[in-house]
Design brief:
The complex is a heterotrimer of chains A (310), B (316) and C (402). Chain A is built from 13 helices and no strands. With 310 residues, chain A is mainly alpha-helical. Chain A has a single domain, classed as ABC transporter involved in vitamin B12 uptake, BtuC, CATH 1.10.3470. In chain B, the strands form two sheets. Chain B has a six-stranded parallel β-sheet with strand order 2-1-3-4-5-11, with helices on both faces. In chain B, strand 6 (152-157), helix 6 and strand 7 (183-188) form a beta-alpha-beta unit. The chains are: A mainly alpha (310), B alpha/beta (316), C mainly alpha (402). Chains in contact: A-B, A-C, B-C. Chains A and C meet through helix 4, helix 10, helix 12 and helix 13 of A and helix 6, helix 13 and helix 15 of C.
Chain lengths: 310, 316, 402
């Protein structure tokens, strides 16, 4: 047991947790914008998968990881727009329409991969960037400051998102539309407009999350995300619709996963109980919510399409 | 004149004989094979191995239904292909066995094959087949131990079942046979599809000191990616994984089902629709170690590998 | 729409909307088929034949529709209480596991006892997996979307653990192949066949459940409470209905039906074993998600969910036949499935609006058939007063500042 808590091992686990958390974080952040304005999008995983394939394909063809990210973002944007049309204009039942987008993304990304690429070809990955000075700090340096640029940007997006939601006019509109759409509408805020914007943001971030995943792994595969989009949605609730909470949730989930992996490598978890250990991230996430009950409410208009005059 | 005519006749007879002989080689002409498999045809692993092999059978018409995770859907597909008159219907998934045992009796004229498994249910029209993946695992394990300066090897696995378990156990045995004091760390990530987790598992194994890695099932592409970044050597299985990381892939155990399929085809042609259990291994060249041409493998290590392969070939 | 349609015309138009939506999706699909080098006409005719074109096809469609109907009926209950249950995948797995365990450990008994026993076990397993998120929500305010997603993960690992450990077929260990499956389960638990060699009583049970659910929702006090909570939590609370417990109950019942689906899958299957490939989809065939769609297609009405499940089941079975016939990658069928869902769900609003106008007119005329009445109130589900809370921060006495 003492082997586990050596600093070298813990440092590696934290670094691994951060890597695992990033796609979840980005996708959950996107979903937060949407949910804060009252729209539930269960199709996140499908958008991530299409973003992942597009990002992968772009890097395959251009050898430029940043173009890959851009490609993922664009695909995500388009799908976010589509989600907005479905949920906001066509007022579809949000608990179901997202599932369709998910299935579409799952199948389409796989189909495109089979037809355009065939046998998997590896692509370039993000170069690691050591932050000068900070990366040389013993232990802390390796945990936090030797990652790729994308990871730093992902974590930077948290305070940016918090600022946008809490301190900008746009953020205020988002919150208003999510809580009191009738009142907001009376005051001249375009409920549909705001929701379109948040869905597009959500889709873009989900597309980027997928592209980040594919480029980090350097490959694409059928169902690459393995349900990460759904975990991201769950994390939105965990984080109480606040970017910081979501970040903590993503890190918790990533940390438990990384820790369990490490325990398996060190053979502290007997192989017969391997599956039980694999439940840990899910169970701990639920327990964390049970024991750290907070007084945050969901946006009142969540999942309710808005029609003026009703 | 007579002489020339005679020559001509002899030549024509000769051609006719040769033509007859050649056409009987092409006995796969018009033979229809259907494959039902759980994962994608390009997974560079389990499913790809059977699809690639089937596509190498000359003259055969191949139909594939891949991505059939759902056992009940596979059952419908197997039945449908049999109804459509396919000569050989292959259920390429251990989980399909139960269904196959119920379907095969309904189609006594159709030949079925079930892999990877070693049970024909006592039915006359069911073949079963498996890969002795532990053999290749052992061979590569020996080479891995020889190539590892730190004497520390890591293996990434999906769920500890079936073919995956066989391979991992073999690899470990090989490492320990070559170097009894070597450390072998095994990490089953409990998923066949979580590529991100597989890559982190590889990181964790490298963190524990491994300088040679191996792994099985389709999600190991994530592990290969990490091996590439960290400069750690990789041994692959099920398909040739050299293209994933030409700098560090040493070799792959590739499943070649062609000889087995050809044997089934000829047996079916002779009227035997099943009842045999096949195992592809080194002896019958169903398993082949395909080396990465661009990797500079020291001769003495290759000799160790070859010796191990020969040992398997000789034992049968 | 200023065209004046009478009720009958409106109803016909309303019910044809999902059909039109499916056609629109299939049109997109046709484009993709052409791009893949396949003939859409050939493909779609094979699809229709594969789903409905023969006795065998119809049986396959009905059997495929059965889990959709079970899950869909459960989803109707949940949705009527305004709860989103995306945990049906895990609930089906638990149902299958409990039923399997019952078959493995109960003493040998005749079919007449064994079959109900395993089905009840399946019901219990699913109910448990629905109760947990329900209780977590009621007592700890944990959002059900989060808990069901997490419990789906737990369920799949539990299945792998059990099927490769305690429940594994001893023959697998002997042979060394270690396939994560049980032995062939006791024959007396096989669902009785009523027709041919594969048509078992599962579909009948599903239909009975759907009918029973209709009675539950519209003819019992419990059903009234469920619907009241779904329409307005505030009003329900002021009427003295224990809101959170009712929500928990909705999730439990929804889970129970999904569990029953899982049990039927195991004991109605070709192999009569439970086997896993490490994913929920491998066992459920995505019925946990597709059942939600079937429920919507049925207008969240249990009786209409019956034909909706049948049609959706046909789509899935037909899609697979399409794949085999024109040899396109299975991935196309998954994508097509998704497109159909999106189009149908997107178009649903129009269907509801058409029917709700009708309902109001009929009410004005003094007629109120149960179906029409409910569909107009379904319209108002979309515009219900905001739920006081989804989770967090509200106690029994409604101290919601709003």
């Amino acid at each position: 047991m003492s082997e586990v808590f050596t600093t070298a091992v813990m440092v590696a686990v934290v670094a691994s947790a951060i890597r695992l958390a990033v796609p979840l974080l980005l996708a959950a952040l996107g979903e937060t914008f949407g949910q804060r304005s009252g729209v539930l999008n269960l199709g996140v995983d499908g958008i991530m998968l299409l973003g992942a394939f597009t990002g992968y394909y772009a890097v395959l063809k251009t050898d430029n990881v940043w173009l890959g990210l851009l490609a993922g973002a664009i695909v995500g944007l388009v799908l976010g727009l589509a989600s907005a049309v479905i949920a906001v204009t066509l007022k579809a039942e949000q608990g179901i329409s997202g599932i369709g987008v998910y299935l579409f993304g799952l199948g389409m990304s796989d189909l495109l991969f089979q037809k355009l690429v065939g046998t998997p070809i590896p692509i370039d990955q993000f170069p690691a960037v050591d932050i000068p000075v900070l990366s040389d700090i013993p232990y802390i340096g390796e945990m936090f400051f030797q990652h790729s640029l994308v990871i730093y940007l992902a974590f930077l997006s948290i305070p940016v998102a918090t600022f946008v939601i809490n301190r900008t006019t746009f953020g205020m509109k988002i919150r208003a539309v999510g809580e009191y759409p009738d009142a907001a509408d009376t005051l001249g805020v375009s409920v549909a407009g705001v929701r379109y914007a948040t869905e597009i943001i959500g889709g873009t971030l989900a597309g980027i999350a997928g592209a980040v995943l594919a480029i980090t792994l350097g490959i694409f595969q059928q169902n690459l995300t393995n349900g990460a989009g759904f975990i991201a949605i769950a994390l939105v609730y965990f984080g109480a619709w606040r970017p910081t909470g979501i970040m903590l949730g993503a890190l918790l989930f990533g940390f438990v996963n990384a820790l369990v992996l490490e325990l398996k490598t060190l053979e502290i978890i007997p192989r017969d109980l391997s599956n039980i250990a694999a439940m840990a991230p899910a169970i701990i996430t639920i327990l964390a919510l049970v024991f750290v009950a907070r007084r945050f409410r969901a946006p009142s208009a969540l999942t309710k399409p808005f029609t003026r005059g009703k | 004149m007579k002489k020339r005519t005679l020559t001509l006749v002899v030549l024509m007879a000769a051609f006719a004989l040769i033509a007859a002989a050649c056409s009987s080689d092409d006995s796969a002409e018009g033979f229809r094979i259907a494959i039902v498999a759980p994962s994608a045809s390009n997974d560079l692993a389990f499913t790809q191995s059977i699809v690639d092999s089937a596509n190498r059978i000359e003259g055969a018409e191949i139909a594939v239904t891949d991505g059939t995770f759902v056992v009940e859907d596979a059952a419908v597909a197997l039945r449908d292909y049999a109804t459509e008159g396919y000569d050989l219907v292959i259920g390429h998934g251990s989980q399909y066995g139960g269904s196959l045992s119920e379907i095969a009796p309904d189609f006594p004229e159709t030949s079925f094959a079930w892999g990877t498994a070693a049970d024909t249910f006592g039915l006359p029209n069911v073949f079963s087949y498996e890969a002795a993946s532990d053999q290749g695992g052992e061979v590569m394990g020996i080479m891995a131990a020889a190539l590892s300066p730190a004497a520390n090897v890591g293996i990434v696995g999906p769920i500890e079942v079936g073919d995956a378990k066989l391979y991992v156990d073999g690899f470990k045995a090989g490492v320990e046979a070559q170097n009894p004091s070597a450390t072998v760390n095994i990490n089953y990530i409990d998923s066949f599809s979580d590529v991100a987790l597989a890559s982190e598992a590889a990181q964790s194994l490298i963190g524990a000191g491994a300088d040679v890695l191996s792994g099985t099932a389709q999600m190991t592409v994530g592990a290969v990616g990490v091996a590439k970044t960290e400069g750690v050597l990789w041994f692959g299985t099920q398909s040739n994984q050299t293209s994933l990381a030409p700098e560090i892939v040493v070799a792959s155990q590739v499943y070649h089902w062609e000889n087995m399929l050809n044997d089934m085809i000829s047996k079916i042609g002779d009227g035997t629709l099943g009842g045999e259990i096949y195992e592809i291994n080194f002896a019958n060249e169903g398993l082949v170690i395909e080396y990465n041409e661009d990797f500079d493998l020291p001769d003495d290590v290759k000799d160790l590998g070859d010796a191990a392969i020969d040992a398997f070939k000789n034992e049968g | 729409m200023s065209i004046n349609l009478n009720n009958r015309q409106r109803r016909i138009l309303a019910y044809s909307i999902p059909v039109l939506a499916v056609f629109a999706a299939l049109l997109f699909g046709a484009v993709m088929l052409v791009l893949l080098g396949a003939n859409p006409v050939e493909g779609y005719s094979e699809m229709f034949i594969g789903a409905f074109g023969s006795g065998n096809a119809l049986i396959a469609t009905i059997l495929k529709a059965t889990p959709l109907l079970f899950v869909g009926t459960g989803i109707v209950i949940a949705f009527r209480a305004n709860v989103i249950n995306i945990g049906a995948e895990g609930q089906m797995v638990l149902g299958g596991l409990f039923a399997t365990i019952a078959a493995l450990y109960l003493p040998e008994m005749p079919s007449i006892i064994m079959v109900p026993a395993v089905l009840i076990a399946g019901l219990a397993g699913g109910a448990l997996w629905g109760w947990i998120p329900g209780a977590l929500k009621a007592y700890y305010r944990v959002n059900e979307i989060l808990s069901t997603i997490m419990l789906n993960i737990v369920a799949v690992q539990l299945m792998s653990y059990l099927l490769r450990g305690p429940l594994i077929d001893p023959a697998e260990i002997e042979r060394g192949t270690r396939i994560p499956q049980t032995e062939r389960l006791v024959e007396s638990a096989d669902l009785p066949i009523i027709f041919g060699d594969r048509f078992h009583i599962g579909p009948l049970i599903a239909v009975l459940c759907a009918i029973a659910t209709y009675y539950l929702l519209w003819r019992t006090p419990l059903g009234y409470r469920l619907r009241a909570v779904g329409l307005s939590e505030h009003a329900a609370r002021y009427a003295g209905i224990p809101v959170r417990r009712t929500i928990a109950l909705a999730l439990t019942m929804s889970g129970a039906l999904a569990g029953l689906a899982g049990a039927v899958l195991v004991f109605g299957s070709e192999s009569h074993r439970m086997v896993t490939d490490g994913s929920t989809v491998g066992f459920t065939g995505s019925a946990g998600f597709n059942g939600i769609v079937a429920a919507l297609l049925g207008g969240l009405h249990p009786i209409w969910t019956i034909p909706a499940s049948f049609l959706f089941g046909g789509l899935i079975v037909g899609g697979q036949a399409l794949q085999r016939a024109v040899q396109v990658p299975s991935a196309l069928i998954v994508a097509l499935n998704g497109l159909v869902v999106v189009f149908v769900v997107a178009a649903d609003r129009y269907r509801v609006r058409l029917l709700s106008t009708e309902g109001r007119e009929e009410a004005a005329e003094g007629e109120s058939p149960p179906g029409g009445e409910e569909e107009s109130s379904l319209g108002s589900v979309y515009d219900a007063a905001p739920r006081g809370t989804d989770s967090y921060g509200q106690d029994e006495f409604g101290d919601d500042p709003r």
